[in-house]
Amino acid sequence: MHLNALRALGAVIEEGDIIYARAAKLKGNEIKLPFPSVGATENAMLAAVLAEGTTVIKNSAREPEIEDLQKYLNAIGGKVKGAGTGEIVVEGVKELHDCEEHSIMPDRIEAGTYMIASAATGGKVFVRNIVPSHVFSLIELLYNIGCKIEIYHNAVYVESTKRKLDTLGGISVRTLPYPGFPTDLQAPLTSLLSVTSGASVVEETIFENRFKHVPELVKMGADIEYIGKKSILINGVERLVGCDLVSSDLRCGASLLIAGLCAVGDTYIDDDHFIERGYADIEKKFQMLGGRVKTVKLCAARTV
User: What's the rounded Cα separation, in Å, for the pair 182 and 101?
Assistant: First the structure.
């Protein structure tokens, strides 16, 4: 999708082990995305803002990050409209300029991770400096399984008594483009549902190979079965047991960290650098919340 968007604007792409892209000058065109990809939408916007003429991006992603990028591009001289809808129009300009200041939007995935961690551990957390509407699908789910939720202008309070959390009425979660449930919270949510009474089904529709955390959770005693390639059935257990785990990607790492906080005993997570890629000072933040998390040096760097 990324490369085809650039091709539509006149770039010549050579694909192989290394991808080469070149263009004397990009020219505006219509770009039809087969799927509302966030990254492909952003790359198309960035390429089109200095292209000659008008570019129309159809089936564009609607995530808040797209609106934030539009706001920034317009602040530095771009002419972009339609972010937050399924069609974005970019009028190419000759040059961009500085702007005095742009504040990046709060990270809704980071905020959601701490909300899920609170629910999974039976804790309380007040997450500030977020946009509650950006995490509404998660708020709704946490409320449905028994969490106490308080919503403020720029904050959310989550309180959970783990013993009372249940999916006995049946919970089915399907990842979808915004405003649906975000794929980046699917792995952390799986850890929560693993220790929530009752059964739940999680279907991943955005990315392939997005269940790499499942075998690691099973090592800890989670009861999870695959339903085909895109869905899992989770039967909540009373507790998980700490063990040695491997983080294979960013969200998998966050999932295992939450599971480790829930588990009896110590959990060692190798390749914890994946976690650090997407969470600023996560060790310190969990320590502030009472979590016993620290980086140690054994045979390799590990997060306990």
Answer: 29
Within the chain, all domains assigned CATH 3.65.10.10 are found at 2-91, 108-303
- Cβ contacts of residue 182 below 8 Å, gap of 6+? 108, 109, 112, 137, 138, 175
Query: Could you tell me whether strands 244-246 and 268-270 are parallel, antiparallel, or unpaired per DSSP bridges?
Result: parallel
CATH architecture group of domain 108-303: Alpha-beta prism (3.65)
Rounded to whole angstroms, the Cα distance separating 193 from 165 reads 9
Contact 80, 49 (CB under 8 A): yes
Q: For residue 56, how many C-alpha atoms fall within 13 Å in the half-sphere facing its CB?
A: 5
Task: Spell 111-138 as b/e; 16+ CB within 10 A means b.
Answer: bbbbbbbbbbbebebebeebbbebbebb
Q: Determine the residue type at 115.
A: M
Residue 297's pLDDT is what? 61
List % helix, strand, coil for the chain (3-state, nearest 5).
35, 25, 40
Kindly report the number of other CB atoms within 10 A of residue 287's CB atom: 13
CB-neighbour burial class of residue 27 (10 A; exposed 0-12, middle 13-18, buried 19+): middle
User: pLDDT per residue over 70-118, tens digit each?
Assistant: 999 999 999 999 999 999 999 999 999 999 899 999 999 999 999 999 9
For residue 49, count other CB atoms closer than 10 A to its CB. Answer: 23
- Region 2-91: CATH code: 3.65.10.10
Q: How many CB atoms lie within 10 A of CB 90?
A: 27
Residue pair 152/140 in contact (Cβ under 8 Å)? The answer is no
- 128-186 confidence digits (pLDDT tens): 999 999 999 999 999 999 999 999 999 999 999 877 888 777 789 999 999 999 999 99
